[in-house]
Design a protein that fits this description.
- With 221 residues, the protein is an alpha+beta fold.
- The protein contains 9 helices and 4 strands, in the order βαβαββααααααα.
- It has a 4-stranded mixed sheet with strand order 2-1-3-4, covered by helices on one side.
């Protein structure tokens, strides 16, 4: 497998976590987004959407982190990243999409660049935008975790160690990169006990440590 990714890309980070959790090896191919490498002809020929991550595997070129992770989960089912039951899978996907579809698009690098370069938003205003949407999204995520915790308690189940249950899931693959990005932009993470407990539990695992930006070969200060 070949993974085209950028060390700071949270979408790439999600896939690196999934690969590490499943113990899958791959060739790391850096694509420097901030420099615009994803727009160069060489990469454009490989990636139709000119985004990262892109996974080359078994003669296929797969894009979009959520699709890639579910592909990996279907082709390498152990350890599973989605629950065995349909309702559980829907709830985990909802948590993951709360980050990937609600928070992430508003603080994506190209969106932030557009705010500054095209709309002439100041750096301070851009950062205020970022912090607002990330914080609002994480507060929603916390409420969802609280609802799930109540449901588990009512069902006589033990509290979740991670976002869902006692093993990392697709939701954790999305949560950890978002927290990393939030910390970079000094988003307040106070008052999010369930969210941060899941994050801390994840970061205690070697797979998450191995996948973090500082462990990537293209890492920069």
């Amino acid at each position: 497998m070949k993974l085209h990714n950028y060390f700071r890309s949270s979408a790439s980070f999600r896939v690196r976590i999934a690969l590490a959790l499943k113990g899958l090896g791959y060739d790391y191919i850096p694509v420097h987004l901030a420099r615009g490498d994803h727009k160069l002809p060489g990469y454009a020929e490989v990636s139709a959407d000119r985004l990262v991550p892109l996974l080359e595997v078994d003669g296929e070129r797969l894009s979009q982190s959520m699709a890639i992770i579910e592909y990996l989960d279907e082709t390498h089912p152990q350890p599973p990243l989605l629950p065995a039951d349909a309702a559980g899978r829907a709830k985990v996907r909802a948590l993951a999409q709360s980050i990937a579809c609600e928070i992430h698009p508003l603080n994506n690098l190209r969106v932030l660049k557009y705010l500054v370069r095209e709309l002439k938003v100041s750096e301070d205003a851009k950062n205020t935008w970022y912090r607002h949407w990330v914080r609002e999204g994480l507060e929603s995520f916390e409420r969802q975790l609280a609802t799930l915790a109540t449901q588990r308690q009512q069902a006589g189940l033990p509290p979740s160690v991670y976002c869902w249950g006692d093993t990392p899931s697709l939701a954790d693959c999305c949560l950890v990169p978002q927290i990393f990005n939030g910390q970079r932009f000094e988003v307040s993470l106070d008052g999010l006990p369930l969210t941060m407990a899941a994050f801390d539990a994840c970061m205690a695992l070697p797979a998450f440590q191995q996948a973090q930006p500082s462990s990537c070969p293209d890492n920069e200060p």
